[in-house]
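Read as chain and fold; for instance:
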Amino acid sequence: MLSKKLAILFFTFVVFLHNGFSQDKIHWIHMGELEEAVKANPKKVMVDVYTQWCGPCKMMSNQTFTHPDVVKYMNDNYHCVKFDAESGDPVTFKGKTYTNPEYKPGVTGRNGVHQLTMELAVSAYPTLIFFDEMLNPIAPITGYQSVENFEIFAKVFASNDYRNITSADAWTAYQKNFVRTWGAAPAPVVTPLLAPEKKVGPSAIVIEIPADTTDEPMHFEDVPVPDYPNPNEEPVKEDAVLVMVDEMPVFTEGDINQYIAKHVTYPRDAMENDIQGKVYLSFVVDKTGKVKDVQILRGIPGGGSLEKEALRVIKSLPNFKPGKQNGQAVNVKMTIPINFQLK
């Protein structure tokens, strides 16, 4: 009788452990398992397309995808897939088998591109591709996503709110009204070497550039929900300003985080009065790559000098490689916050 009670207690303890710790990690599945998983339990899908050499991919895996709020929400609302864009393993998806013909075992660094990567039209890493319950693609989100920024994408797709967002203005309004509830560790702050010539860079650069992926840490946030173009649509109008395009503008002076950190000077009056905060700006990279139409979207109470400095440094950005739509250079609107923080 005693042994039976002990067995029951042990079983209860094991069940408790399973229930208590099952949310410690995202339940990643293989791409080849996805169709059966969706069939058995219809949910939205997120595919994390990464590579072994991609620094921002590792950052997302180690930081964003380990956060308790992210883990619980994704396990509850999504089937999550990890897909190595340069894997040598064949993958069958929607009745078709894809391989990586150029894969070479034992090679470090870049190792060919999987046919499924090309089928999914992925050209930068990491790229998160969201699908609906019928495995129809909803949108790709390119670049590193912090916990804070990932929340809006995870929820806009899971809740089907994206179906009501049919314009850039609607997406801007959605972001403005969205209430974030997931906590995130504070981003690193560039510490000045000498005071009062205090150089404080953005603690979290937010910019809509799926830049060439390197092993350098990058912080990409607030990328708008892509408004997919029709490949057969007519050429873009001469003065049109787009939000998401086939080829986003690329900063030509290396790491934009480092560039802004180097060129932003913390105003003395703000330092003396301990004024801190985040200035959100928008700007347009025109078809020649020039930065223009810089505007403050949201400022800092009492932080006029910080807003002025943020405007100055963004207006002084060197030329980008212009964005393209259907092979045509176009005007692209982008957003970026600069976080002024004193240590």
In short: The CA atoms of residues 7 and 13 lie 10 Å apart.
